[in-house]
TrEMBL record:
<feature type="domain" description="UspA">
    <location>
        <begin position="4"/>
        <end position="136"/>
    </location>
</feature>
<comment type="similarity">
    <text>Belongs to the universal stress protein A family.</text>
</comment>
<dbReference type="InterPro" id="IPR006015">
    <property type="entry name" value="Universal_stress_UspA"/>
</dbReference>
<dbReference type="InterPro" id="IPR014729">
    <property type="entry name" value="Rossmann-like_a/b/a_fold"/>
</dbReference>
<feature type="domain" description="UspA">
    <location>
        <begin position="148"/>
        <end position="287"/>
    </location>
</feature>
<protein>
    <submittedName>
        <fullName>Universal stress protein</fullName>
    </submittedName>
</protein>
<dbReference type="Pfam" id="PF00582">
    <property type="entry name" value="Usp"/>
</dbReference>
<dbReference type="InterPro" id="IPR006016">
    <property type="entry name" value="UspA"/>
</dbReference>
Length: 289
Protein backbone atom coordinates (compact mmCIF):
# COMPACT_ATOMS: atom_id res chain seq x y z
CA UNK A 1 0.00 0.00 0.00
CA UNK A 2 1.29 3.46 -0.93
CA UNK A 3 1.93 5.62 2.13
CA UNK A 4 -0.40 8.63 2.03
CA UNK A 5 -0.20 12.28 2.92
CA UNK A 6 -2.05 12.36 6.26
CA UNK A 7 -3.88 15.32 7.77
CA UNK A 8 -4.90 15.50 11.41
CA UNK A 9 -8.20 17.36 11.83
CA UNK A 10 -10.28 18.59 14.75
CA UNK A 11 -12.83 20.83 13.04
CA UNK A 12 -10.94 24.08 13.71
CA UNK A 13 -10.12 26.60 10.99
CA UNK A 14 -6.46 25.70 11.42
CA UNK A 15 -7.09 22.01 10.77
CA UNK A 16 -9.23 22.90 7.74
CA UNK A 17 -6.29 24.87 6.37
CA UNK A 18 -4.03 21.90 7.10
CA UNK A 19 -6.42 19.56 5.28
CA UNK A 20 -6.56 21.86 2.25
CA UNK A 21 -2.75 22.05 2.17
CA UNK A 22 -2.45 18.27 2.55
CA UNK A 23 -4.88 17.66 -0.32
CA UNK A 24 -2.86 19.88 -2.65
CA UNK A 25 0.35 18.19 -1.56
CA UNK A 26 -1.13 14.72 -2.14
CA UNK A 27 -2.13 15.75 -5.67
CA UNK A 28 1.32 17.14 -6.39
CA UNK A 29 2.99 13.95 -5.20
CA UNK A 30 0.31 11.70 -6.74
CA UNK A 31 -0.39 10.11 -3.37
CA UNK A 32 -3.63 9.27 -1.55
CA UNK A 33 -4.89 11.52 1.22
CA UNK A 34 -5.71 10.11 4.64
CA UNK A 35 -7.72 12.14 7.18
CA UNK A 36 -7.33 11.33 10.88
CA UNK A 37 -9.25 12.54 13.91
CA UNK A 38 -8.41 11.59 17.51
CA UNK A 39 -11.47 11.35 19.74
CA UNK A 40 -12.05 10.67 23.44
CA UNK A 41 -15.39 10.50 25.23
CA UNK A 42 -15.61 13.52 27.54
CA UNK A 43 -17.67 14.15 30.64
CA UNK A 44 -17.96 17.71 31.97
CA UNK A 45 -19.56 18.62 35.30
CA UNK A 46 -20.83 22.03 34.14
CA UNK A 47 -21.84 21.28 30.55
CA UNK A 48 -23.94 18.44 29.17
CA UNK A 49 -21.84 17.11 26.28
CA UNK A 50 -24.16 14.19 25.66
CA UNK A 51 -23.51 10.50 26.05
CA UNK A 52 -20.94 8.48 24.12
CA UNK A 53 -23.30 7.92 21.19
CA UNK A 54 -24.15 11.61 20.94
CA UNK A 55 -20.52 12.66 21.00
CA UNK A 56 -19.60 9.95 18.53
CA UNK A 57 -22.28 11.10 16.07
CA UNK A 58 -21.07 14.71 16.27
CA UNK A 59 -17.49 13.62 15.64
CA UNK A 60 -18.44 11.49 12.64
CA UNK A 61 -20.60 14.26 11.20
CA UNK A 62 -17.75 16.75 11.51
CA UNK A 63 -15.13 14.47 9.94
CA UNK A 64 -17.48 13.24 7.21
CA UNK A 65 -18.27 16.84 6.30
CA UNK A 66 -14.59 17.78 6.02
CA UNK A 67 -13.81 14.69 3.95
CA UNK A 68 -16.76 15.37 1.66
CA UNK A 69 -15.64 18.96 1.08
CA UNK A 70 -12.08 18.02 0.21
CA UNK A 71 -13.23 15.18 -2.07
CA UNK A 72 -15.49 17.61 -3.97
CA UNK A 73 -12.63 20.06 -4.45
CA UNK A 74 -10.26 17.29 -5.60
CA UNK A 75 -12.41 14.77 -7.52
CA UNK A 76 -9.44 12.74 -8.73
CA UNK A 77 -7.89 12.35 -5.29
CA UNK A 78 -8.21 9.12 -3.32
CA UNK A 79 -9.40 10.13 0.15
CA UNK A 80 -9.80 7.89 3.20
CA UNK A 81 -10.56 8.76 6.80
CA UNK A 82 -10.06 7.32 10.25
CA UNK A 83 -11.61 8.23 13.60
CA UNK A 84 -9.50 6.71 16.36
CA UNK A 85 -10.33 6.85 20.04
CA UNK A 86 -7.34 7.76 22.18
CA UNK A 87 -4.92 10.50 23.13
CA UNK A 88 -4.32 12.90 20.26
CA UNK A 89 -0.53 12.58 20.54
CA UNK A 90 -0.67 8.78 20.37
CA UNK A 91 -3.16 8.70 17.49
CA UNK A 92 -1.31 11.28 15.41
CA UNK A 93 2.12 9.79 16.07
CA UNK A 94 0.86 6.36 14.99
CA UNK A 95 -0.72 7.89 11.88
CA UNK A 96 2.54 9.64 11.01
CA UNK A 97 4.40 6.33 11.11
CA UNK A 98 2.23 5.04 8.26
CA UNK A 99 2.39 8.23 6.17
CA UNK A 100 4.76 10.03 3.84
CA UNK A 101 4.16 13.13 5.94
CA UNK A 102 1.71 14.39 8.54
CA UNK A 103 0.02 17.80 8.23
CA UNK A 104 -1.40 19.63 11.24
CA UNK A 105 -2.99 23.00 11.88
CA UNK A 106 -1.17 25.53 14.01
CA UNK A 107 -3.01 28.41 15.66
CA UNK A 108 -1.61 31.89 15.03
CA UNK A 109 -2.49 35.25 16.58
CA UNK A 110 -1.09 37.83 14.23
CA UNK A 111 2.25 38.66 12.71
CA UNK A 112 4.04 39.54 15.93
CA UNK A 113 3.05 36.47 17.88
CA UNK A 114 3.16 34.05 14.96
CA UNK A 115 2.83 30.34 15.54
CA UNK A 116 1.63 29.11 18.88
CA UNK A 117 2.53 25.44 18.86
CA UNK A 118 0.52 23.62 21.50
CA UNK A 119 1.71 20.72 23.61
CA UNK A 120 0.07 18.18 21.28
CA UNK A 121 1.76 19.57 18.18
CA UNK A 122 5.14 19.78 19.87
CA UNK A 123 4.95 16.24 21.25
CA UNK A 124 3.94 14.87 17.84
CA UNK A 125 6.83 16.68 16.16
CA UNK A 126 9.27 15.25 18.69
CA UNK A 127 7.98 11.68 18.40
CA UNK A 128 6.95 11.39 14.74
CA UNK A 129 9.00 9.12 12.52
CA UNK A 130 8.01 11.15 9.43
CA UNK A 131 8.06 14.84 8.51
CA UNK A 132 5.39 16.99 10.15
CA UNK A 133 4.08 20.12 8.41
CA UNK A 134 2.30 22.84 10.39
CA UNK A 135 -0.09 25.19 8.60
CA UNK A 136 -1.86 28.29 9.87
CA UNK A 137 -5.44 29.20 9.03
CA UNK A 138 -4.44 32.74 8.02
CA UNK A 139 -1.28 31.66 6.19
CA UNK A 140 -0.65 34.13 3.33
CA UNK A 141 1.97 31.85 1.76
CA UNK A 142 -0.06 28.62 1.73
CA UNK A 143 -1.18 29.35 -1.84
CA UNK A 144 1.88 31.37 -2.87
CA UNK A 145 2.86 29.61 -6.09
CA UNK A 146 6.12 30.89 -7.50
CA UNK A 147 7.78 31.42 -4.13
CA UNK A 148 10.83 29.38 -3.21
CA UNK A 149 11.10 26.45 -0.86
CA UNK A 150 13.56 27.46 1.88
CA UNK A 151 15.61 24.84 3.71
CA UNK A 152 18.00 25.25 6.60
CA UNK A 153 21.31 23.39 6.44
CA UNK A 154 23.82 23.00 9.23
CA UNK A 155 26.67 20.73 10.17
CA UNK A 156 28.04 18.19 7.69
CA UNK A 157 26.33 16.61 4.67
CA UNK A 158 24.72 13.87 6.76
CA UNK A 159 23.36 16.13 9.51
CA UNK A 160 20.51 17.58 7.45
CA UNK A 161 20.34 15.06 4.60
CA UNK A 162 16.71 14.15 5.26
CA UNK A 163 15.63 17.80 5.43
CA UNK A 164 17.40 18.45 2.12
CA UNK A 165 15.75 15.40 0.56
CA UNK A 166 12.30 16.61 1.66
CA UNK A 167 12.96 20.15 0.43
CA UNK A 168 14.17 19.02 -3.00
CA UNK A 169 11.19 16.67 -3.37
CA UNK A 170 8.80 19.49 -2.42
CA UNK A 171 10.44 21.88 -4.88
CA UNK A 172 10.39 19.30 -7.68
CA UNK A 173 6.69 18.52 -7.07
CA UNK A 174 5.83 22.23 -7.31
CA UNK A 175 8.23 23.23 -10.07
CA UNK A 176 9.63 25.73 -7.57
CA UNK A 177 13.08 27.00 -6.80
CA UNK A 178 14.93 26.02 -3.66
CA UNK A 179 16.89 28.36 -1.41
CA UNK A 180 19.38 26.68 0.91
CA UNK A 181 20.31 28.73 3.97
CA UNK A 182 23.28 28.20 6.25
CA UNK A 183 23.95 30.47 9.23
CA UNK A 184 27.25 30.65 11.03
CA UNK A 185 28.77 32.38 14.03
CA UNK A 186 32.29 33.14 15.13
CA UNK A 187 33.65 30.32 17.30
CA UNK A 188 34.81 31.18 20.82
CA UNK A 189 38.42 32.21 21.10
CA UNK A 190 39.44 28.98 22.81
CA UNK A 191 38.25 27.02 19.78
CA UNK A 192 41.12 28.38 17.71
CA UNK A 193 44.17 26.21 17.53
CA UNK A 194 47.19 26.28 15.22
CA UNK A 195 45.68 23.39 13.29
CA UNK A 196 42.22 24.97 12.90
CA UNK A 197 43.70 28.34 11.96
CA UNK A 198 45.81 26.69 9.27
CA UNK A 199 42.73 24.88 7.93
CA UNK A 200 40.74 28.13 7.81
CA UNK A 201 43.60 29.88 6.01
CA UNK A 202 43.71 27.10 3.43
CA UNK A 203 39.98 27.45 2.60
CA UNK A 204 40.03 31.25 2.61
CA UNK A 205 38.48 32.03 5.99
CA UNK A 206 35.35 31.19 7.92
CA UNK A 207 32.75 32.38 5.42
CA UNK A 208 34.45 30.52 2.59
CA UNK A 209 34.58 27.43 4.80
CA UNK A 210 30.81 27.70 5.45
CA UNK A 211 30.02 28.18 1.75
CA UNK A 212 32.07 25.10 0.89
CA UNK A 213 30.26 23.09 3.56
CA UNK A 214 26.88 24.11 2.12
CA UNK A 215 27.98 23.28 -1.44
CA UNK A 216 29.13 19.83 -0.33
CA UNK A 217 25.83 19.14 1.46
CA UNK A 218 23.82 20.18 -1.62
CA UNK A 219 25.89 18.39 -4.26
CA UNK A 220 24.25 14.91 -4.15
CA UNK A 221 20.74 16.40 -4.13
CA UNK A 222 21.49 18.73 -7.02
CA UNK A 223 22.64 15.71 -9.00
CA UNK A 224 19.48 13.80 -8.08
CA UNK A 225 17.17 16.74 -8.87
CA UNK A 226 18.87 18.54 -11.79
CA UNK A 227 15.70 20.42 -12.76
CA UNK A 228 15.35 22.16 -9.40
CA UNK A 229 16.95 25.63 -9.48
CA UNK A 230 18.99 26.17 -6.32
CA UNK A 231 20.29 29.35 -4.72
CA UNK A 232 22.60 29.43 -1.73
CA UNK A 233 22.55 31.87 1.15
CA UNK A 234 25.30 31.92 3.77
CA UNK A 235 25.07 34.54 6.50
CA UNK A 236 26.69 35.18 9.83
CA UNK A 237 24.11 35.35 12.61
CA UNK A 238 21.67 33.35 14.69
CA UNK A 239 20.35 30.38 12.72
CA UNK A 240 16.78 31.10 13.80
CA UNK A 241 16.92 34.77 12.82
CA UNK A 242 18.59 34.08 9.48
CA UNK A 243 15.99 31.42 8.61
CA UNK A 244 13.07 33.61 9.65
CA UNK A 245 14.34 36.41 7.42
CA UNK A 246 14.55 33.95 4.51
CA UNK A 247 11.06 32.61 5.27
CA UNK A 248 9.44 36.00 4.68
CA UNK A 249 9.02 35.26 0.96
CA UNK A 250 8.88 31.45 1.08
CA UNK A 251 5.95 29.14 0.34
CA UNK A 252 7.39 26.47 2.63
CA UNK A 253 10.17 26.37 5.21
CA UNK A 254 11.96 23.07 5.85
CA UNK A 255 14.09 22.46 8.94
CA UNK A 256 15.67 19.38 10.45
CA UNK A 257 14.62 18.11 13.85
CA UNK A 258 17.01 17.92 16.76
CA UNK A 259 14.92 16.52 19.59
CA UNK A 260 16.40 16.50 23.07
CA UNK A 261 15.26 15.01 26.36
CA UNK A 262 14.91 17.27 29.39
CA UNK A 263 13.62 16.94 32.92
CA UNK A 264 10.20 18.16 31.76
CA UNK A 265 10.03 15.95 28.68
CA UNK A 266 11.20 15.87 25.09
CA UNK A 267 11.74 19.17 23.28
CA UNK A 268 12.48 20.12 19.71
CA UNK A 269 15.69 21.99 18.95
CA UNK A 270 15.85 25.73 19.48
CA UNK A 271 16.06 26.58 15.77
CA UNK A 272 13.00 24.52 14.83
CA UNK A 273 11.16 25.87 17.87
CA UNK A 274 11.80 29.48 16.87
CA UNK A 275 10.85 28.94 13.24
CA UNK A 276 7.64 27.12 14.17
CA UNK A 277 6.52 29.97 16.40
CA UNK A 278 7.30 32.86 14.09
CA UNK A 279 7.57 31.79 10.44
CA UNK A 280 4.92 33.38 8.18
CA UNK A 281 4.63 30.26 6.00
CA UNK A 282 3.98 26.52 6.49
CA UNK A 283 6.88 24.79 8.25
CA UNK A 284 8.02 21.21 7.71
CA UNK A 285 10.03 19.62 10.53
CA UNK A 286 11.96 16.60 9.27
CA UNK A 287 13.36 13.91 11.58
CA UNK A 288 16.98 12.83 11.04
CA UNK A 289 15.95 9.46 9.57
Amino acid sequence: MTAPVTAGVDGSNESRAALAWAAREAERRRLPLHVVHAWRFEVHDAVDLGDRDDQGRRVHDMVDGMVREVAERHPGLEVTCEIAEGRAVDVLTAAAAEAQLLVLGSRGHGVLVGFLVGSVGQQVIVQAARPVVLVRADDPAAEAAGRDIVVGQQGGPDDTAQALRFAFEAAAARGAGLRAVRAWTLPPAFAYSPGSLQLLDEVGGLESFERTALEQALRPWRERFPDVPVSEHVEMGSAGQVLLAAAEHAQLMVVGRRACRTAVGARIGSVAHGVLHHAPCPVAVVPPG
